[in-house]
Specification:
Elements: H1 4-30, H2 54-59, H3 65-71, E1 77-82, E2 85-88, E3 91-93, E4 96-102, E5 105-113, H4 114-136, E6 140-147, E7 172-180, E8 185-187, H5 188-191, H6 197-209, E9 215-217, E10 229-232, E11 238-239
Parallel strand pairs: 9-11
Antiparallel strand pairs: 1-4, 2-3, 4-5, 6-7, 7-8, 7-10, 9-10
The structure holds zinc ion.
């Protein structure tokens, strides 16, 4: 006959194992290590505004080039895969693309990870464009980007100055503003503050960006971001 203490400890060790397995599965999905074929979730699609398990479905693109090529399609994005650059000294990229158009807006993006490119396409097409039409009666025709790949550490935060930026792995983009059909310019530096329509637009699209990017920083984060939005899909989550 099994003693109550022994069966209790067996029960607890089973609970521990289940929790450990669940934690490991969650971590693998967040890091993009779980191949799509083993995922309980369907592949991400750019056709519609995804409503559930968005972060995990985006992360599934990280290491999967065939999935990436199947997902990043016209008319949502005009993207071409680029060769991997093996990591050296914390810098390089894997499964990245170059793209000239995203969500109907021109952009000159030389290299950005597939996962980030998909997040950009979803954010521009399903959040930025509808809000631009609603607020200004015009679509965004071009996006001002201040850079993607840069082999450097994080700037603007003394506590993180020894940590590589997500820009060092082409997993981040900085956006300075937008041009609308008809020529209206919206600039993060000039228009963020105040009560203008442009300010409201910038604040709302920044807020909505937090669904798609793990890190979405703007002028309220620190002085280094007064003139741009920084978006990335690294390990951390921060929306400010
Ligand atoms: Zn940045």
């Amino acid at each position: 006959m099994t003693s109550p203490t022994r069966s209790k400890s067996r029960f607890l060790s089973r609970v521990f194992l289940v929790l450990l397995l669940a934690g490991a599965t969650f971590a693998a999905m967040r890091l993009g290590w779980l191949p799509q074929r083993f995922s309980p979730f369907p592949p991400i699609s750019l056709d519609e505004r995804p409503s559930w398990f968005l972060d995990t479905r985006l992360a599934a693109l990280r290491l999967d080039r065939p999935l990436c090529e199947a997902v990043l399609k016209e008319p949502h994005i005009s993207a071409t895969s680029i060769a991997d650059q093996p990591y050296k000294d914390g810098c390089g990229w894997q499964n990245a693309v170059r793209f000239s158009q995203v969500g109907g807006a021109k952009i000159g993006a030389e290299k950005l990870t597939c996962e980030m490119a998909a997040a950009m396409a979803l954010w521009i097409e399903h959040e930025v464009q509808p809000l631009a039409l609603e607020s200004f009666g015009a679509r965004v025709v071009s996006i001002g980007d201040m850079g993607i790949f840069d082999c450097r550490n994080i700037v603007g935060n003394p506590l993180m100055k020894n940590i590589r930026s997500q820009h060092a792995t082409a997993n981040a983009i900085d956006i300075s503003g937008f041009t609308l059909d008809g020529g209206r310019q919206i600039s993060v530096l000039r228009d963020w503050s105040g009560r203008s329509k442009e300010a409201a637009f910038l604040k709302e699209i920044h807020r909505r960006a937090c669904r798609y990017f793990r890190v979405a920083l703007g002028p309220e984060y620190n002085a280094a971001h007064k003139n741009h939005f920084h978006f990335d899909r690294g390990a951390f989550s921060r929306c400010k």
